[in-house]
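ping. complex inputs:
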Amino acid sequence: MEITRNEPLYKQVAAVLRQAVADGEYLPGSLLPSEAQLSQRYRVSRPTVRQAIAALRTEGLVDVVNGKGSFVRARSGRPAPTVERTITRTDNHFSTPTDDWPEAEPPTVYRTQTDAVTGPLLGLESEEALIGCDRLITDPATGARTLHQTLVPFATADSTPLENTPEARPSEIYAILTAAGHDLTWRETVYARMPLPDERTALHLPEAVPLMVITRITYDASGQPLLLEESRTGGIHAAFGYAITAASDKRHAVRSR
Amino acid sequence: MEITRNEPLYKQVAAVLRQAVADGEYLPGSLLPSEAQLSQRYRVSRPTVRQAIAALRTEGLVDVVNGKGSFVRARSGRPAPTVERTITRTDNHFSTPTDDWPEAEPPTVYRTQTDAVTGPLLGLESEEALIGCDRLITDPATGARTLHQTLVPFATADSTPLENTPEARPSEIYAILTAAGHDLTWRETVYARMPLPDERTALHLPEAVPLMVITRITYDASGQPLLLEESRTGGIHAAFGYAITAASDKRHAVRSR
DNA sequence: TATCATTTGTTCGTATGTATC
DNA sequence: CGATACATACGAACAAATGAT
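pong. complex structure:
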């Protein structure tokens, strides 16, 4: 592959480097040639080389460190170990895999209201009162961070111990709701987007690492939403696993959005 | 917010624009001021303005079109409608929500071998023979594209109609395996990463849109893996939903990675 | 500790090409 | 066709981080 075609120079340089990495000429963790060297080798200006490397950065192919150089990122087919989304129940005790993840900061409890997104999810109108609790927890196995939020409608907390323990962990909330006579089921949705700058700093995310957003809704047996949880985690740092059961009925059919 | 601090100019400009979008001064779909205008307004050079806008592009905040300008992207809290991962069974007939998604291209069938990733997932050694089938399917509701791959070990296809129908759809494969006497269960893992350039073009992904990778493994009742599927979809274009059932035993416990 | 060479980061100026309307 | 807007490319200079001397 040579630099002559009638295509933008920086794209050609990026393509050459991308191919070289794919061919194993530059192994993960190793250093690419310096910008000055690449500039000489391909007879292009340094700004052009920088533009090529900028493209590789946004693809997540390289990490660049000021004063050192451009490192090939380990682009593993499969990322960190899988975190199970399972909920385990024994009698009236619930546990989830994230239960024993330490909190990097004390939980933040606050009052808020339903908005255009959370309202429909909880089956409520807009501007209904909610108790929120934000947590920053850390996977002890990998060090990966997760932002976890619980939103409890007043109707759910009312006349239960939840009124006085807004900072309860999810598995504790499940137990409290079960003790209050509810028969719980859960549904999750997951999607990915690029993190906002403050999410990147809070989660210590490198460049070009997407955010996975998992929304879990806890339902009563009647289908009434009781609780909304949202988890945000760096995509490369975690995969999520769950079981699929073939449904012959429509019990868990689309409750939509 | 003004441009004076002792921080890189392009970061200040990016922060101002980011804040303006967050404050609703520039609504989704609307046009940012042109580079020349921003350059004048904040008394910085046009390359500096371009650097600021480049930052907003990699964050997915704006879409830039040559000759037109920089559009604020609709950064909805919740993206496209949820695609259910449910498998529905009636007698020996299976169906999944993607069954009736049209194929943008004819499926590609090929032979390959297990590698360091697929081997362990299928409980096989390295370099065991597989039948692969790649599909490019389209969500009729949204137009979003998905790359879908099935990997069938020879041991699974052997002595079933699968030998002669390598391009069978997943739900057809489930039916064939069930007819062959298997009692099927499924597990999925999901993670996100930035797409490779060819994945971006194949899936028509805009800039700064991550890729969601869903891996589904079909197991026999004995826990033997029979089939590996991988789906790749643009993150913003789809959310995935599934039911969580509280397990009191360890039936669906961690089968790892 | 201080200095220096190397490497990337930031910023400007300038010119030309290409897409849109 | 022309005005506007973004894309590409080069050159130049200085700042900041890094690691070795």
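Residues 82-241 of chain A form a domain with the Chorismate lyase fold (CATH 3.40.1410.10).
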